[in-house]
Each structure stands twice: as structure tokens, then as C-alpha cells.
Write a structure and sequence with these properties.
The chain has 259 residues and is an alpha/beta fold. It is built from ten helices and five strands; from the N terminus they run E-H-E-H-E-H-E-H-E-H-H-H-H-H-H.
């Protein structure tokens, strides 16, 4: 993480100016914005997804307060929650405890002897950045793992459905059909055969022929009871078998409904 994206929720203009001067000199932070309103701060978190928030609890010159911000933020259920550093004049341990229970990660009081805006930023740089980086990396890895698991689940369901109606794994068209159904589970795209053809370095026509051949083979060799049980949508009686696109859309819809 090269720069820490930072939101400052503070109602004292002199303090904001001091933060800005230090951020400009340090060049290790990117200031996404400042506000003295707790409700606006929530909207800015939703809009800018900052890595960290410096939060003043008592916004006398603004609106709301830091505890209201923390409560509203916790109700959003964000996947990437920012690191919340409370910086406040309030020295009440009870208030600090409430802030922590609502999601604050650390509290610094402005009355301590070594307090300065520079010290706050140095704390974020040396302590919070590694914590935030680990958190975001973990969440990203988790999201990637979920995506992989979702993709594998779809592949397994497609394979099972094709087995149930006897689409032979010996035919090239089966793999083309499986790929086409998987793509269509995400979204319907134009020139689907062309996308499959490009992947396997074939012509569009040869891919479509192979898919139709695999379908025809299943309808010739699989017992009618199995076909009627597992392929339950309408088939044109004059053709007696699904077209390629009818087949693909049927199974993409069926699999999406099962997830």
C-alpha cells in the first residue's frame, strides 16, 4: 500500500489546516476529504472507501458526533471497514469504551503532552498501515477464494447436469457447451459461439456444429424418461431436440436458480 487514503472528521479549522500541512509535507497519505458532519462522513466512507478515518468525537461546530458516525458505520456492514482512529478532547474512559464497542480501533486524547497532528499521522503510518494492509489483503484473498469456490460450484453443477442427460464427455461439443453455460451463468453475451471458438482456436461454425452434435447424441442415446425428467422445458416437436442456444439458456437459468 503506497499511500493511505485518509478521511478526517474534525470541526476545528485550525486542526484541519495542520493535518493538511503535514499530509502535504509527508506525502504518505492521500486525503480523500474532511468534514465536520457525522452523517456526511458516513456518505464519504461509502463513496471513497478510505483506509483510515481520523475521528473527533465532539463535533461542536458541525453536526452529529463521532459516536453517531460509528453506529451508522457499523450498520452498513462494509466488507472493507476503515481503520478508525479516534482523536478527541474527551477523556472519559466510559466514552472511550463506548467508542471501541461501536468499532473504533484506537483512541488518542488531545490533552496528552506529546500530542500533535504530526504525531497522529506518524502513528497511523507506523502502526495502522500494517494493520490496514493486512486487513485489506485478507479481505481481498477471502473474496478471491469465494469467487474461486463459486466458479468451481458452477462447473460441478454443469458437469452433473450434462451427465444426467448423457452428454458424452468423449465429444468436443460437451466442453464447448459447458463453457457456454458457465459464461451465460454470469451474463448473456452476443456471439457466444465466437467467444468459445476464439478460446479453442476454432471457427464459429465448427463450435456450433460440435455443440449441436453433442446435444443430438444425447437425445438419440439417452432414455426418454431421463430426458423428460432432467430437461423440462419446451422442445419444438418438429425438431425433436433443443437448439444450441435453447440448451445453453435452459441450463444457465436452471443452475443460477439452484445457487
Amino acid at each position: 500500500m503506497n499511500k493511505l487514503n485518509l478521511l478526517i472528521v474534525e470541526d476545528d479549522n485550525n486542526t484541519i489546516a495542520e493535518y493538511k500541512a503535514n499530509i502535504k509535507a509527508d506525502n504518505k497519505f492521500y486525503l480523500v476529504g474532511t468534514t465536520n458532519s457525522s452523517s456526511q462522513a458516513v456518505e464519504m466512507v461509502k463513496q471513497y472507501s478510505p483506509h483510515a478515518v481520523i475521528l473527533d468525537l465532539e463535533l461542536h461546530q458541525g453536526s452529529g458526533n463521532g459516536l453517531m458516525f460509528l453506529k451508522a458505520l457499523s450498520e452498513l456492514g462494509l466488507k472493507n471497514k476503515p481503520f478508525i482512529l479516534v482523536v478527541t478532547n474527551n477523556i472519559s474512559t466510559v466514552t472511550h469504551s463506548i467508542a471501541r464497542n461501536l468499532g473504533a480501533d484506537f483512541v488518542i486524547t488531545k490533552n496528552q503532552s506529546d500530542f500533535s497532528c504530526k504525531m497522529v499521522l506518524e502513528f497511523l503510518e507506523s502502526i495502522a498501515q500494517s494493520t490496514i494492509a493486512a486487513s485489506f489483503t485478507s479481505q481481498t484473498a477471502s473474496a478471491a477464494a469465494q469467487s474461486i469456490n463459486y466458479s468451481e460450484t458452477i462447473k460441478e453443477k454443469i458437469s452433473t447436469e450434462l451427465d444426467l442427460i448423457g452428454v458424452s464427455p468423449k465429444l468436443k461439443g460437451r466442453q464447448y457447451l459447458a463453457d457456454a453455460v458457465e459464461i451465460t451463468c454470469s451474463k448473456r453475451v452476443p456471439n457466444l459461439c465466437g467467444i468459445i471458438a476464439q478460446k479453442y482456436k476454432k471457427t464459429d461454425a465448427s463450435v456450433e456444429r460440435a455443440m449441436q452434435t453433442a446435444i443430438n447424441h444425447a437425445w438419440r442415446n439417452t432414455d426418454i424418461e431421463s430426458l423428460e425428467r432432467y430437461y423440462t422445458t419446451y422442445i419444438n416437436p418438429q425438431k425433436g431436440v433443443p437448439t444450441v442456444m435453447e440448451f445453453i439458456y435452459y441450463y444457465s437459468d436452471k443452475i443460477k436458480k439452484s445457487l
